[in-house]
Design brief:
Elements lengths: L14 H4 L8 E13 L3 E8 L2 E8 L3 E4 L3 E3 L9 E10 L7 E12 L18 H6 L1 H4 L3 H23 L3 E2 L5 E2 L11 E4 L2 E5 L4 H11 L1 E9 L12 E10 L5 H21 L1 H7 L11 E3 H12 L11 H15 L3 E5 L12 E2 L2 E5 L1 E6 L2 E8 L4 H10 L8 H8 L5 E7 H9 L20
Parallel strand pairs: 3-7, 4-7, 8-12, 14-15
Antiparallel strand pairs: 1-2, 1-6, 2-3, 4-5, 6-7, 9-11, 10-11, 12-13, 13-20, 15-18, 16-17, 18-19, 19-20
Helix pairs in contact: 4-6, 4-7, 4-12, 8-9
């Protein structure tokens, strides 16, 4: 019998441990994927790919190479993408990545690829089509620049969680199969659920609101589904939404302030702990010290007058308008983000609270970032009778929403919330122009694999 007592310390070291400087001049073991091999004749460079970055290893003549199941071999037998464990002396080197290299004494190949990689993942830029990168997604993501995008995406989610925990929010996990959707409309994925009609949820909206009556402040990071027949660079049929809902607000401005706090916290986090990824991608973090907020009707007028673009849709923002609004915000206020408030009621869901001063508008907002909407939020109707009246006005029935409505029937505080599109936020942060570039495994009208 053995007793398991927790995480075991391994013999092999990680890049972060090597970069402390404490291991310089010492013999170490390191494992990783063979990123590339550069044979210069008398000396060769074996570049290992680690989770923290790439590590240069110097291989001189006489270095022992062992391949599992095959015995001793030569350097020429070491293939790219092989899993390896190396041993050698840590040596400072100004020319090496991160300023260190390992003078190899031994290479052990733990496993070998059965075929060469279909994409040049060891190249700084693969220079291949997006379609090819998506078709071979598990391989293309091994590229250092490709995976850096998703490390930064991790930072966006990490910041969301850490900041909201610090603000007293409780993390929840809501179902993605339901009887009725919060948003309604035709863009629903419908399915049969044990002989009952069901849908994939377009958002966790109903559940977030119900849970405000329990925890007051809640958040979730989870997938949402939209059966929209779009084939654009900004739409997905499944994406990750960063959602929060908070009770006892004095107005929707509290929500904008909370999101601004999240962005400030997260940009500091990316600056402090994700410098390697930022340097790899050459990105500049956006300003978040203050974010302008401007009314929907006002900014449409200002953009129309400033850039000579006729207003075509009085009830919504077209993609070109989002670009021009962000341009205006940058030129006028040097702002990377801009809140657009008081959206028309006609384009907001039934639960959006109307502006008491002008019910044609709502107490809601979008957040635009470098030319694209990345957040939708606002204050919700919390009074049971007002909610029923709004539903009746829109010709809606309560069928399938009885549980949701019961939360309001038995009392709910003033509340509101928002949803952030993670992939869009990442896309604009790293400067990509197609949302599929910042989605691990995209789902769109034509793609169900990998």
């Amino acid at each position: 019998m053995e007793l398991v007592k927790g995480v075991r310390k391994t013999e092999t070291l990680e890049l972060e441990e090597l970069l402390t400087g404490e291991m310089n001049g010492k013999r170490v073991k390191v494992s990783g994927a063979v990123h590339t091999v550069r044979d210069m004749g008398n000396v060769a460079f074996v570049i290992l790919r680690k989770r923290g970055g790439i590590l240069q290893c110097v291989c001189e003549k006489g270095v022992l190479v062992q391949i599992k199941g095959r015995g001793t071999a030569g350097l020429k037998d070491v293939k790219e993408e092989a899993a390896a464990e190396v041993a050698g002396i840590v040596t400072p080197s100004e020319k090496a990545p991160h300023g260190i290299e390992i003078r190899l004494e031994e290479i052990r190949i733990l496993s070998e690829p059965a075929a060469p990689a279909p994409l040049p993942v060891s190249k700084w830029k693969m220079n291949t089509s997006l379609e090819a990168k998506l078709n071979y997604r598990p391989i293309s993501l091994r590229n250092v620049r490709e995976r850096a995008k998703f490390r930064l995406q991790e930072g966006l989610v990490r910041g969301f969680r850490e900041f909201l925990y610090g603000e007293g929010f409780t993390e929840i996990h809501t179902p993605k199969i339901g009887a009725k959707s919060a948003e309604g409309g035709a863009n629903l994925f419908r399915l049969e659920y044990f002989h009952h009609p069901a849908v994939l949820q377009q958002s966790p909206q109903f559940y977030k609101q119900m849970m405000v009556g329990v925890f007051e402040r809640v958040f979730e990071t989870a997938p949402v589904f939209r059966a929209e027949k779009h084939n654009t660079k900004r739409h997905l049929n499944e994406y990750t939404s960063l959602d929060f809902e908070m009770g006892y607000i004095s107005g929707f401005e509290d929500l904008m302030a909370m999101e601004t706090g999240y962005l400030q916290y997260t940009m500091k986090l990316l600056e402090k702990e994700y410098g390697r990824e930022r340097k790899t991608l050459g990105i500049e973090l956006p300003r978040t010290d203050e974010i302008p907020a401007v009314r929907f009707d006002e900014i449409k007028r200002l953009v129309s007058e400033t850039y000579g673009r006729k207003i075509r849709s009085p009830y919504d923002l077209e993609p070109e308008e989002e670009v021009l609004i962000s341009r205006y915000a940058k030129e006028k206020w040097d702002a990377d983000f801009v809140f657009v408030t008081h959206y028309p009621s006609k384009k907001r869901p039934f639960y959006a609270m109307d502006d008491p001063e002008d019910p044609t508008y709502t107490l809601s907002f979008d957040l635009l970032f470098r030319g694209m909407e990345v957040t939708t939020g606002g204050q919700r109707i919390h009074d049971y009778h007002e909610l029923l009246a709004k539903m009746e006005k829109r010709g809606m029935t309560a069928e399938g929403m009885e549980q949701y409505l019961s939360a309001f029937k038995y009392g709910m505080p003033p509340h509101g919330g928002l949803g952030i599109g993670l992939e869009r936020l990442t896309m604009k942060l790293v400067g990509e122009d197609n949302i599929r570039e910042t989605t691990l495994f995209p789902r769109d009208m034509s793609r169900l694999e990998p």
